[in-house]
Each structure stands twice: as structure tokens, then as C-alpha cells.
Q: What sequence folds into this?
């Protein structure tokens, strides 16, 4: 483990804990969103049971990306990243430190979403709860690094938010949340194969709806893990000294 | 002057942002243990030079030596850097910000670090406000915390990019008391500024314009070189600007 990763992670955790409003929003927003979705779906058709896995995957990607992207952008625009890059820390320190710090809160959000969906909204699912969490963890690692990486292309929060329709929405439309990937035209099916959310939805649906084991959806998990690893590597490369603003 | 006696030795350093030549074969030598002012208007290349010295940018030509090495991770732990922006974590308190940078710069022992952080908070005269969030402080107080983050690890070289900008005269004098104190401890200070008030406090100065050093020396040498009695540093700067323009004409 790089020397300063825990110091950076600890600082991020302290920052969020001291920012009570952000902390409250992190905890409350997922519950509000899932409640609204639950209220808007007819209960008798069992539709929500079918789309719940896709929602869990999408919200993990969305919240992980947003939380990290905006926070990291602030590091760039406030000059704290430049100051950090001028210190003896390595790129690995920063990437792993951020991953650990934000992962804690992103995971907390995911836990709230999954537990609220399963126990409060009473969504029916098969498979083990821990298998769902394994998927959520891998999705979050990719989403956090994606957020850090994309923040390099934005100069302010407004621009960062504009990346949501560009990075997240196409994945939502093509991942199988709204209609099955197999029913899309060939070009869209082909594009969907390159989007991590497609594999997240396929894997989670396999576990929660089709009673598959983690080994059965190992292919989906491997693609997501590969994406998370690739994003970590690309993010570390993007954090060059001199590329901090 | 031998390489060991120099904190900074820059020879023909250049840097280009897109089409803009920020540094144009700039050369500069800074002896150890003094306060050295980089004086010039906005856009002269002062910040670019400081960012090269701290290792954030790489010179596109020539050679750059800081404390005997090329700037980078190797020299980073011996440098204290105060950027132009305050660059502080607004959610954290005064002590937490300083403590974070103390850890990052290698102060591992908790008791020793705590003592060093407390001493630094007292030095910048914010002991009563040590637990307050940065967001609750005035601009001048934030500048002091930013300075504290740069000096908490006892660096050999302090790079300060326009540290007194926006400060009232009393606070500016206060800052210079801090800098003089650090100088007495043997710390080399390089400070960029565009105000003549700051320049007068430095042991040596380099006038920078359009990415080049147009003159360097002690404040006294520079004012005397104008040939006018009672010349100020502003007169000296303008003298060298016009001299350069005559040469180029």
C-alpha cells in the first residue's frame, strides 16, 4: 500500500464528516429516490422486482461518479490538488487514497439503497445478499475512478454535471434497464457491449431474478473488475504533475 | 559560486503554454539562506518559474537544479510551497489542515507532529481559532494558514507565490516578520511579487519581464544602477525595461 494513501483517505473522511449537509444528503437522497421509484411503479405486475437489479447498478454508478467527480473537481479548482502534487506523494497515493476515502461513503450509499430496497420496499429477490454487495463494490470502484478521470475535463461544477448526460445516460438507456438489450437494433447492441453498466445489470439480474450464483455471472464480474482496474490505471496516468488545474 | 552554495541554479530554462512563451531562456542563481524576490508584472513568468522549481512543470530546455537535484519527488520533501491560491481544505479546521500537510511531508511521530502543528499555529497567531473551519476565517487568516502548511515540515527552501497579495499593510508587515524569522533559521526563501514594497524586504532581486531576467542584484545595487539620486525600485524596474527596449530597437 502506498505510504500516504491512508492519510489522504482519512482527510477525505474528515472533510465529509465535518460537512454535515453533504453527509445528510449522501444518506437521505438514495432513500428518497428509491421511494419515488417504488411509488411510481404498479405493484401487482412485479415489474419493480425485475428492474430493481438494474436500478441498484445504475444508482451505484451514478452516485459514485457524481460524488467523486464533483469532489475531485473542487480539489483541482481550489488548488489543493496542485499543492498535493507538489508534495512527496505519488500518483498511486492519490488514486488509492481517494478510492478508499470515497469508497466508504459510496459503499454506505449502496448499502442503504440495497437494504432499503430489499427490506423497506420489500422487493423480491433470489440469491444471497452478499453476492449483490460484491457486484456493488466492483461497480463503485469503477465509478469512483471514472469520476476522478472525467473531472480532468471539466473546469467547474456546471461542466462536470454536463458530463452526466454524456457518460451516464447512454449507459442507462442501453444497459437493459428500460428494455432488454437483445431487443435493440444491432448497432445499439454492439455499443451496449462496451458499456460497463450492461454487465452490471446483466450480472445483478442473474443473481437477483434468475437465481444464478456468483460463479455463473463470473464473466460479467470479470468485465466490471477489468473496467475498474483499467479506470484506476488511466486515472493514475491522468494525474501528471502539471495537469492539476 | 559553487553548486553546493546555491539553493537554485537555473540555466536557459524555457516554457511554452500553447503559443505563449512563458519563460524564454531564463537563467537565475539563488544562494542558500537568503530571501530572493522575483519581481515583475502579471504574466511575466514568475508563477511558471516557481511551478518549475517545485516540480509541477518541466522546463522545455536548459537545466534546472534545486537543492542539488532536478526538481521532482526527490526534492519535494525539502521544499515548502505556498501557491498563489490559498489551496486549503475549507471543511477542515486550521489545525487539521496543517496536520494533514505535516503528515504528507513525513512527520510520522504523532506526539512530535502534534507539537510541531501547535507551534506552527502559535507562530501564525491563530491559536484561539485552531479548531475553526477554514470557511470561517478572513482572507488574511487563510493566507497565514496557507503559509503554515508550507513551513510545518521545516523545509530548506520556501517557494512563495505572491503570498502578500490582498493583505492590508499591517498584515503584510506581519508576514515579512515571519519570513525574516524563517530566513534567520537558514531557510532560503524565493518570493514572487509585483509590489515594490515586498521587493524592498528581499536580500536579492531578479526583475522578470516577458519570461526573462532583465536585471538582478541587491535592492541597493539595482536602485544605484539607475544613476539617479533617491531612485526607488520602481524607477529601477522601469529603467531596465526601457534599457531592454532600446537594445531591441
A:
Amino acid at each position: 500500500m502506498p505510504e500516504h494513501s491512508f492519510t489522504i483517505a482519512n482527510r477525505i473522511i474528515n472533510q465529509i464528516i465535518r460537512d454535515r449537509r453533504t453527509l445528510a444528503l449522501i444518506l437521505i437522497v438514495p432513500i428518497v429516490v428509491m421511494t419515488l421509484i417504488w411509488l411510481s411503479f404498479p405493484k401487482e405486475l412485479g415489474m419493480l422486482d425485475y428492474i430493481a437489479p438494474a436500478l441498484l447498478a445504475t444508482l451505484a454508478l451514478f452516485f459514485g461518479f457524481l460524488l467523486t467527480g464533483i469532489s475531485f473537481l473542487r480539489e483541482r479548482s481550489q488548488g489543493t490538488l496542485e499543492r498535493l502534487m507538489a508534495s512527496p506523494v505519488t500518483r498511486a497515493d492519490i488514486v488509492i487514497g481517494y478510492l478508499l476515502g470515497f469508497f466508504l461513503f459510496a459503499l454506505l450509499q449502496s448499502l442503504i439503497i440495497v437494504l432499503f430496497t430489499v427490506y423497506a420496499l420489500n422487493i423480491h429477490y433470489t440469491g444471497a445478499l452478499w453476492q449483490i454487495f460484491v457486484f456493488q463494490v466492483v461497480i463503485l470502484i469503477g465509478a469512483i475512478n471514472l469520476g476522478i478521470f472525467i473531472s480532468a475535463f471539466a473546469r467547474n461544477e456546471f461542466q462536470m454535471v454536463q458530463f452526466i448526460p454524456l457518460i451516464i445516460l447512454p449507459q442507462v438507456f442501453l444497459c437493459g434497464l428500460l428494455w432488454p438489450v437483445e431487443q435493440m437494433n444491432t448497432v445499439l447492441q454492439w455499443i451496449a457491449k462496451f458499456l460497463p453498466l450492461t454487465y452490471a445489470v446483466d450480472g445483478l439480474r442473474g443473481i437477483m431474478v434468475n437465481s444464478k450464483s456468483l460463479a455463473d455471472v463470473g464473466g460479467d464480474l470479470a468485465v466490471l473488475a477489468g473496467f475498474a482496474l483499467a479506470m484506476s490505471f488511466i486515472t493514475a496516468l491522468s494525474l501528471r504533475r502539471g495537469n492539476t488545474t | 559560486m559553487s553548486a553546493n552554495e546555491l539553493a537554485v541554479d537555473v540555466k536557459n530554462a524555457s516554457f511554452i503554454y500553447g503559443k505563449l512563451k512563458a519563460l524564454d531562456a531564463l537563467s537565475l542563481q539563488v544562494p542558500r539562506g537568503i530571501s530572493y524576490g522575483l519581481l515583475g508584472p502579471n504574466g511575466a513568468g514568475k508563477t511558471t518559474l516557481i511551478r518549475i522549481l517545485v516540480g509541477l512543470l518541466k522546463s522545455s530546455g536548459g537545466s534546472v537544479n534545486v537543492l542539488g537535484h532536478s526538481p521532482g519527488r526527490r526534492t519535494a520533501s525539502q521544499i515548502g510551497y505556498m501557491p498563489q491560491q490559498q489551496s486549503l481544505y475549507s471543511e477542515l479546521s486550521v489545525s487539521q489542515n496543517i496536520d494533514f500537510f505535516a503528515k504528507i511531508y513525513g512527520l510520522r511521530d504523532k506526539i512530535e507532529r502534534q507539537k510541531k502543528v501547535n507551534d506552527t499555529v502559535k507562530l501564525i497567531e491563530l491559536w484561539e481559532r485552531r479548531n475553526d473551519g477554514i470557511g470561517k476565517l478572513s482572507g488574511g487568516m487563510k493566507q497565514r494558514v496557507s503559509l503554515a502548511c508550507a513551513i510545518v515540515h521545516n523545509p530548506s527552501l520556501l517557494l512563495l507565490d505572491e503570498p502578500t497579495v490582498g493583505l492590508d499593510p499591517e498584515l503584510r508587515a506581519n508576514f515579512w516578520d515571519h519570513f525574516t524569522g524563517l530566513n534567520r533559521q537558514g531557510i532560503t526563501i524565493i518570493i514572487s511579487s509585483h509590489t515594490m514594497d515586498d521587493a524592498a524586504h528581499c536580500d536579492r532581486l531578479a526583475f522578470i519581464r516577458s519570461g526573462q531576467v532583465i536585471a538582478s542584484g541587491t535592492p541597493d545595487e539595482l536602485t544605484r544602477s539607475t544613476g539617479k539620486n533617491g531612485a526607488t525600485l520602481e524607477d529601477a524596474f522601469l529603467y531596465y525595461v526601457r534599457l531592454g527596449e532600446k537594445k531591441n530597437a
User: Anything to note?
Assistant: Residues 169-184 of chain B form the longest helix (16 residues). Chain B is about 40% helix and 25% strand. The mean pLDDT of chain B is 91. Chain B touches chain A through 31 residues (CB under 8 Å).
